[in-house]
Design brief:
Blueprint lengths: L17 E4 L2 E5 L5 E5 L4 E3 L6 E6 L5 E3 L3 E9 L4 E9 L8 E7 L4 E5 L5 E12 L4 E5 L4 E4 L5 E6 L5 E3 L3 E9 L4 E9 L8 E7 L4 E5 L5 E12 L4 E5 L4 E4 L5 E6 L5 E3 L3 E9 L4 E9 L8 E7 L4 E5 L5 E12 L4 E5 L4 E4 L8 E6 L5 E3 L3 E9 L4 E9 L8 E7 L4 E5 L5 E12 L4 E5 L4 E4 L14 E2 L11 E7 L3 E9 L4 E10 L2 E7 L12 E9 L2 E9 L2
Parallel strand pairs: 6-13, 15-22, 24-31, 33-40
Antiparallel strand pairs: 1-4, 2-3, 5-7, 7-10, 8-9, 8-11, 11-12, 11-13, 14-16, 16-19, 17-18, 17-20, 20-21, 20-22, 23-25, 25-28, 26-27, 26-29, 29-30, 29-31, 32-34, 34-37, 35-36, 35-38, 38-39, 38-40, 41-42, 42-45, 43-44, 43-46, 46-47
Length: 560
């Protein structure tokens, strides 16, 4: 009012939005006369400015638990007025806001929000302010905040609840309920044998929350068993529940037993040693084994063999008498719960009278060694042979090459007369020996040799008789010897001859070459010295005489 008649006036359009606005100008003169004029038609005053909004909480970095109550706060102003406010939240860092919190609420600057069960580390809240001209502006949390699951699941074990008796090896259902504000992701099961003080025995981990688990009861007998269920959610929250009272895991199964020996049909001698063999297994363990036998069939009476044995599967048994054709063995296996499993021989076996296991005693009494028997002459081989039951037969053998054989049969299956006439073979030997073997009815055998070697010669030494008709080496004399030894031999045809002495290792220690000796007997002395004059050591030596008719050998012993 009262402005100069300049024809123009600057006007700040007021915040009175209308579509029927007009302006009127009234002119005044000094005589107080007036005239007015207005817009010929309506014009609009429009609100074209959006509100201004700021979210003050949550601003970013907060950790709000699901289900907890928190205030969303903001400021919102407008050149005219904020008519209402919308609230929404994002779980993807503000990329989208598909989750409505509230719409059309008053611009109070605060809203009590129950945080939803949508865990995320990328949550933001958006506030959208509206004015009467439908202008709108949004603002969101400046940074991400966290909606976290901080509530553990709820769990309850319904079976075994306590008081039950579940057999080892039986199938039982463990049942439970488990819930969570978001969801139970998995369940762990374990059991205790100490009344719940510890749960050292896993049953299953990471199993689905089905509410039931088929459990094969383990071989851990206990009267203080409990089961525990632990429920987990995705935020690693967990809760456990266990049996309300103890239940029992009981061993109700007897051991499984089988007799492996004797199974039946065996013939075992009284006094002989045999193993009773068996197998015994148990779902928990075999604590001990007892053995019995019956002489009167499968029905007993049973006579103890051994009890309280470890389950080794074998026991050495010396069979008792008297003899029977109806013997059985029984094996009983016990476990710690006193369950007993029993098995016995499939059929009867035999206990026979005692077996004769003692060999005869035999002694050769002639030739005992050192004799010189002429080939072709007859001498008695004599012996004594006794047995605890009786001598059944006698074998007589001889060797011309010492105690190592080869053995030549003289007579077999002889009666135990103690004597057998022997026509000696016309074979010269200084290493002859006789062996007598005695047998009893149980085919036990024992043999004896003469005490030392004897000689089969062409003629008796020092006794007149027919002259040899073949090349012959007589026994060295004396033998054994310390001093000089006479070597005597007989040749049939004239010619060169050589006498040699060899050590047991085969080395020649002495020799004598005799050229052009005539037919007949010859003697050569060896003084016990080597070819270089040194005295030889004591021990066994071999004499060898060779000529055109062949080679003959004999053994002798040098004494120290």
């Amino acid at each position: 009012t009262g402005i100069a008649n300049s024809g123009s006036h600057p006007w700040t359009v007021p915040a009175t939005a209308t579509a029927t606005a007009r302006v009127r100008a009234t002119a005044h003169d000094a005589a107080a006369n007036t005239a007015a004029s207005s817009s010929p038609a309506d014009f609009a005053i429009a609100d074209q400015a959006s509100p201004v909004v700021t979210v003050t909480s949550p601003s970013g970095g907060e950790d709000w638990a699901m289900g907890s109550g928190h205030n969303i706060t903001w400021t919102a102003t407008d050149n005219v007025a904020v008519t209402d406010v919308d609230l929404a939240y994002s779980t993807d860092g503000g990329a989208t806001y598909p989750n409505t919190i509230a719409t059309g609420i008053a611009n109070s600057g605060s809203y009590a929000w129950t945080v939803p069960g949508v865990p995320t580390a990328a949550a933001r809240v958006r506030v959208t302010a509206h004015d009467g001209a439908s202008n709108a502006t949004s603002a969101a949390s400046a940074a991400n905040f966290t909606i976290s699951d901080q509530a553990p699941p709820s769990a309850s074990l319904t079976a075994p609840a306590g008081g039950e008796t579940w057999a080892v090896g039986s199938g039982q259902n463990i049942t439970w309920t488990a819930t969570d504000n978001v969801g139970v992701t998995s369940v762990d099961l374990a059991y205790s044998t100490d009344g719940g003080a510890t749960y050292a025995h896993p049953i299953g981990t990471g199993i689905a929350n089905s509410g039931s688990y088929a459990w094969t009861v383990p071989a851990t007998p206990s009267t203080t068993a409990r089961v525990r269920v632990t429920a987990h959610d995705a935020a690693s929250n967990s809760a456990s529940a266990s049996s309300a009272a103890d239940f029992a895991i009981a061993d109700q199964s007897a051991p499984a037993v089988a007799v492996a020996s004797p199974v039946g049909g065996e013939a075992w001698y009284e006094g002989s040693a045999h193993n009773i063999n068996w197998t015994a297994t148990d779902d928990v363990g075999v604590a001990s084994v007892s053995l019995d036998y019956s002489r009167h069939g499968a029905g007993g009476p049973w006579i103890p063999v051994a009890s309280g044995l470890a389950n080794t599967g074998s026991y050495p048994w010396t069979l008792p008498g008297p003899a029977t054709d109806s013997a059985f063995v029984r094996v009983r296996a016990l476990d710690a719960a006193s369950n007993t499993g029993t098995a016995q021989s499939d059929s009867a076996f035999h206990i026979l009278p005692p077996l004769d296991t003692m060999a005869p005693v035999v002694v050769v009494t002639s030739p005992v060694g050192g004799e010189s028997w002429v080939g072709g002459s007859t001498h008695n081989v004599t012996w004594t042979a006794t047995d605890n039951v009786g001598v059944d037969s006698v074998n007589v053998d001889y060797s011309l090459t010492g105690t190592g054989g080869a053995w030549i049969t003289l007579a077999h299956s002889l009666a135990n007369s103690g004597s057998y006439p022997w026509l000696l073979p016309a074979v010269l030997s200084d290493s002859a020996v006789v062996r007598v073997t005695a047998f009893d009815h149980a085919v036990n055998a024992a043999a004896d040799l003469g005490d030392s070697l004897f000689h089969i010669t062409a003629s008796a030494v020092g006794v007149g008789g027919p002259r040899p008709t073949v090349f012959t080496l007589y026994r060295p004399s004396p033998n054994p010897a310390r001093g000089s030894v006479e070597l005597r031999f007989h040749i049939v045809r004239s010619g060169d001859a050589t006498a040699e002495i060899f050590s047991v290792g085969g080395s020649r220690v002495w020799h004598s070459f005799m050229p052009g000796v005539g037919a007949g007997e010859h003697r050569v002395a060896w003084d016990g010295r080597g070819s270089s004059g040194e005295r030889v050591t004591s021990g066994l030596y071999f004499v060898r005489v060779s000529c055109a008719e062949g080679v003959r050998t004999a053994r002798m012993v040098r004494l120290p």
